[in-house]
Write a structure and sequence with these properties.
With about 210 residues, the protein is mainly α. It is built from 9 helices and no strands. Helix 6 packs antiparallel against helix 9 and helix 8 packs antiparallel against helix 9.
Length: about 210
């Protein structure tokens, strides 16, 4: 999985910059046009709309707890358990803070909600959850092709879940894109912390053995 990590990790800084770029310019004419066009293309697609269930908070909670239990009982990986909490748990809290801090309105559509919309919680939490699942599942795959397949499925689920919020009229595409960007940056930051701690732990073990 080293190739995947070499490809994915440098994007963390780029997506963080991208998030702030959207934050400072999503009311510009270019973004407004993009939001309008994507709404015209996607709004009303019933099958796509239904996929938002993959990042509903109840499912995020169930899958996160399931992964924590797996890492605890099966792997005895306590740092991995903390990884899940930092990525998904802290990510959820951060998303709620940002939605109320930035105070942006949702689309003025029948399915529009009364809460604020920037960044999309489904896009952000969906990415954090499924990338974290892929990270630990792919790590234990025997073949590289199986690891790549898991990551491809995770990316597909994340993309479709984010776009489902545009199809359902709950978010503009700029909300979704911002959710992906900040979610990915948080995921990368958590993964970098985790791998640094793993290397330190293995180094200590080697020194104790010697």
């Amino acid at each position: 999985m080293g190739t995947i990590k070499r490809l994915f990790y440098p994007l963390g800084m780029a997506t963080l910059i991208g998030f702030f770029a959207i934050l400072t310019s999503y009311t510009n004419e270019g973004f407004l046009e993009l939001d309008l066009r994507t709404m015209e293309w996607l709004h009303g697609l019933i099958l796509l709309d239904a996929l938002s269930v993959f990042a509903d908070r109840w499912l995020v909670l169930i899958l996160s707890l399931g992964l924590i239990i797996y890492l605890w009982v099966k792997m005895q990986n306590f740092r991995g358990m903390l990884f899940v909490f930092l990525a998904v748990g802290v990510g959820n809290g951060l998303n709620e803070l940002m939605e109320y801090f930035f105070v942006t309105e949702r689309p003025d559509l029948p399915r529009g909600l009364e809460t604020f919309s920037f960044p999309s919680s489904h896009a952000m939490l969906g990415l954090l959850l499924y990338f974290t699942l892929a990270y630990f599942l792919a790590e234990h795959m025997v073949s590289k092709s199986a690891g790549w397949l898991i990551w491809m499925i995770a990316v597909l689920v994340v993309v479709l879940t984010g776009l489902s919020r545009v199809a359902g009229g709950e978010h503009f595409f700029s909300d979704v894109l911002a959710g992906w960007f900040i979610g990915y940056s948080l995921f990368v930051a958590t993964a970098v912390w985790y791998e640094m701690r793993e290397r330190q732990f293995r180094k200590i073990l080697r020194e104790d053995i010697e």
